[in-house]
Amino acid sequence: MKTVKYFVPFPDKNSRKFNVSGAGVQEIMRPCIVNRPNGTNDWLFMFFYEPVKIKIKDEIRDFPENSLMIWSKDDGHLYGNHSIQWKHSWIHCYGEIIPKLLKELNIKIRNPIFIKDPSAFEKYILSIYSEITCYKNPDRKILQNLFENFLREISRSSARQKEPGIPQRILSVKRFMDQHSDQRLTLKKLAGMASLSVPHFCSEFKKYIHTAPMEYIIGTRLEQAKYLLLDHNMTISEAAAKVGYNDIFHFSKIFKKHFGRSPRNLR
After folding, report:
1. Which pLDDT value is given to residue 160?
2. Measured between alpha carbons, how far is 190 from 58 in angstroms, rounded to an integer?
């Protein structure tokens, strides 16, 4: 990824709600410690790709790679690594929505947050960078929405550390089911894809997806059929066949059971 580093030449400090002072993605630093005792008079969000030292209150502590640090506009900054070259992505910003969103999303400041995948962090900074550099008059609402989504990604990433996520083997099978729900799928085949026995797979799937595998497939098929039936040029038989049901009577029966009305009455 290409390195980005940009500071807004004339930041609009009168923009009370939200604005950006500068942004950087994967900026490479020589071995050094940055020390700004008085900060920069704005909020700073910074992601570190390598282990770094960060001053928390009056103590300089070591933190691992993939650490995200948030400083308020009143904080001083001390961070870096004097032993190795290090890389970071960052955004300087200001506005009254920032502390409100942090509180709403329960995101802690002045204490590093571990972010397993930096791509979401980079994606939003690049989108914000594009908005402020590609237009003569950046849309403040777009900037605000991008920033809020950026914080929501941070909040979600932080929450994943506190609760178990969906195992990759279950996610992979679920994605396969989503893409092939119109085909004949058996529990034996799906369990084999997850390298689990059928009972273990069914238990794991329901634990994380909150529904049984076959119920999930049926629900997916019927939602697709409901959408297809909105097209009055498509017959009920055609819609049923497209989602994997060649027996229209069986399709109509489970459709009515699921939605409380027949396919014909839907129209």
Report:
1. 59
2. 55
